[in-house]
Structure formats: C-alpha cells, structure tokens
Amino acid sequence: PSPLARPARPRPFGAAELDRAFGAPAPARKTGPAIPAVPAAQLSVDLPPRGAILKSHELALRGKTHPENTLSVNGAEIQLAEDGSFTTVVKLPDGKSELEIRARDKAGNVGTIRWPVEVSDRALFLMALAEGAIGQVGAELDGGGEHSRIEKGPVMLQGRAVLYLKGRIQGKKLFKQLFITAHVDTAKQREFEEFFDQVIDPNRFYPVYGDSSTEVRDVNARDKYYLLVEVDRSSLLVGNFNAGVKGIELLRYDRTLYGAKLDLDRSFFGGKLRQQAKAFVSRDDARLARDHNILRATGGSIYYLRHGQVLVGSERVNLVVRERSTGLQLATLPKARDLDYVIDYAGGRIMFKAPVASIADASFGISNPAFTLSTAGGHPVYLEIDYEYERSEEQGSGSWGFQVKDTLFDVLTLGASYVNEDRNPSAGASYRLYGGELSLRHGKATSLQAEFARSESSTSRTTSPRTAASATSA
C-alpha cells in the first residue's frame, strides 16, 4: 500500500511495555509536513515494490479514495464503487515508465501518487505435467488407450505428458515484439478431437457468471502439437486455423483445417510498399468433407442441413440479403452459436432463437437491418452455411494454397491466389482454385476494382472448369 502519508515504522514487539515498566521516555515520532484534511488527500493504492521488474505489460491496480472524488490513472478516468474503492488494469510500455494516480475532489484539490515501474523485455512461463501407470497386460486402466500404451511381454506401461509454454521477447532491429505459445499433449487423438471445444458449455453450466470472469482458450489444436509464433504483424501457426483465402468478391476458400499456416505482413520504404502473403498446408482426416448449403429463409426458426454428423465448431452461419431483381448480394450478417442459434451436430439441425424473416424491407440498413415479414417490395433473405461433416467412407483429403498481395502508396493493390485440394478418386473430384485481383483507389470515395477467378474440379476421367470475372468502380 502507498498512501500519501507514510505511516510510522512499527516498534519491536513488547517495546512499549518495557518502556512503561522502567519509566523510559516515549521516543519522538518523526513526521513529515502536515497534509490538509481534504477529500483529495484520501487516496491509497496497492502498488508493486519499488524497483521490482514486472513480467507483464498489464498491471492490476486496486485501492480506495473518497467516494465523491474523481480518479484517473495515467490520464484515464476510473469508475469508483459506492464506498470509493476501485480496481483496474493498466497497460504498461516496455522498459521504465511512471504511474500517475490522481484524485480530484469537488473543491478542485488534487492528490497525486507517482510511482516508477519497469517491464522486462522478456518473459517466459513453462508448465510440464506427466503421469504414468504400470500393470499386467489386459488390465483396464481409466484414461488410457492403445495410443498411450506400450506392452512388453506380460508388462504394460501407460502414460501421458503435457507441456505448455508461453513467452515474450522484445526485439530491436529485426522485430519489435515476438510472442510464442506452444503446447504438446501426447494423449490427444485427432480422430476424436473437435475444431471447437467450448470450455463453458451453456447446455451443461449456467453461461452467465457474476465475477467478471473471461473465458480464454489459448491453445486450439485437434492433434498433439500446437505452436503459435507472432512477430509484429506476422505469424506462424501449427494447429487449427481458417484458410481465409479471399479475393475481392469472386474467390473464396474458407475451410477450417488442422495443419500449418504462415502469415507475413511487412512494410518497406517508410510504409510506401506493403507486402502481404499467406500460405497453408493441411493433411486432415480422411473422413472429413466440406459442404455449402444455401437455404431460403421461411419466417421460421428451424432449418436442416444436407448432412448430419457435423464437426463441432466447424459451421459458419450467415444471413444474406440479395437484391430482388438481380440477385446481387446486398448484406451479409454473421450469426454466432449460442447467441443467435443452437445446433444439433449429430442431426444437422439449426434452431434460431428468433424467427428468420423471409423478406428484408427495401429500406433496410446494412448495419442495423430491419427485417419484416412483408411480402411486398422487399429483398429475399437466405441462410448460407459452410460446415465440415464426417463421411462414412475415407476420402483422403489434403489441401494447400497461398495468397500474395502488394500495396503501393496505399493506392494500387495487386494480388494473386492459388488453392489445391486433392481427394481419392473414389471419394470425388479433386479441386483447384486460382485467380487475381487489382484495386485502384483515388481519394476516399473513388475506386476501381477488377477480379478474375477460375475453379477446376477434375477426376481421372473428366474436368469441369468454371471461370468468373468482374469489374466494379465507385
């Protein structure tokens, strides 16, 4: 605690009793200058020890002041409780800096605490766990299987190891900040893991908690290994990811996969040239397949997908409004699971928490659409759903792709994309998607965009190409 007035140093235990017994005079107390008894002077804060080096950029502060004061930390106003207490989290820069906590009363008096703090240029957290068991071959032990068991003669060994690492390094020349997150779990099996594993399941637990808790999932991987390296605006990921290859309008590859993904984003020549590149590779489960369903909204709340056995967390649900005459897309509204709808993954059924109108009023706004059930003068509404599902037979799917974009002077953008998806001949046609784009901007309201895209689906016998091109200006 660091109040404005420093309390007197406590005396040794029993010193006052000895002084009274032997008639020793009371020691003189050294005091500083008197502090006026004004509300602004009532300020105390819990602070780290002076000279301590912090490992995190976030510092949790708590303290108390007069309930009628106005409090600020480094210039940001802080909300007070009814009794004048407060809690907040302060973002700190690298290296040495100073905290300034200021309390102002209604009379204009100001009480200030200035405290030096320092954040380390690197931090590391490592946690490792291991467990094991030994027994006779044929014994049934909880939590184990063939993937975590070794048999040697009549003896069986079973075990599991888990490692979690998180670190941060401050750079100087090559990069500014590097963050790394790694995780290994030897008991994970890809065929039994989902893309999305919710920590707090609203079907099992009450989804609202009163302690301001935040659900954080730092590792998301279907297989044993997870790695995330973030360097400024670039990253390397081994784990679950979304391919996210998107052109202007025509080209899109948005599958959820497990594999490796590289994102590069660098600026050169003082920001005049920006280069962006992404590449991914995945050799996912042989039984997984992807489907895209377009359903016409009917005014109801229950809709059925084409397939069941949907992979948990793989769905992407969007409400799409199309122009009634041309069919052009006017608006896309993403929907969130448990907030807007619930889904039966085994049966492939989606139930919205409110009816989905079949018609959007012709005067709707994109940011706040006013859907009506009127059938006159409106635009049709569709449900577009992308998801992964488990097939009954293996298809041996593997995919890879890349996308590059160069932006010059924030005016001219050139880009190219390529995606390849291989399948066994018995499971369907292999797939290839590629294209290019060009964007030219002039001012804030004028732009010229052109895009070319081509997809090919081929087997050992046939090839089915599709080509599309568009050009727009505004």
3D structure, described in words:
The protein is an all-beta fold and 474 residues long. Helices cover 2% and strands 52% of the residues. It has 1 helix and 32 strands. It has one helix spanning 15-22; strands spanning 43-46, 53-54, 58-65, 70-73, 76-78, 85-91, 95-104, 110-119, 122-136, 149-152, 155-170, 177-185, 225-231, 234-242, 245-246, 252-253, 256-268, 273-282, 288-296, 302-304, 316-322, 329-335, 341-344, 349-352, 359-361, 371-372, 378-390, 398-408, 412-422, 430-442, 446-458, 463-473. Strands 9, 10, 11, 12, 13, 14, 17, 18, 28, 29, 30, 31 and 32 form a 13-stranded antiparallel beta sheet that branches. Strands 19, 21, 22, 25, 26 and 27 form a 6-stranded antiparallel beta sheet that branches. Strands 2-8-7-4-5 form a 5-stranded mixed beta sheet, with no helix packed on it. A hairpin with a 2-residue loop joins strand 4 (70-73) and strand 5. The protein is globular, with a radius of gyration of 31 Å. Residues 1-8, 27-32 and 365-375 have low confidence and may be disordered.
Look at the helices and sheets and give the structural class.
mainly beta
Number of helices: 1
Biggest sheet statistics: 13 strands, antiparallel
Identify the quaternary structure here.
single chain
Overall helicity: under 10%
Q: So what's the overall shape?
A: globular
Beta-strand residue fraction: over 45%
> What gap, in angstroms, lies between the N and C termini?
60 Å
* Rg from alpha-carbon coordinates: 31 Å
On the 0 to 100 scale, the average pLDDT is: 81
Query: Which regions are unreliable across 5 or more consecutive residues at pLDDT < 50?
Result: 1-8, 27-32, 365-375
Give the total of beta strands.
Answer: 32
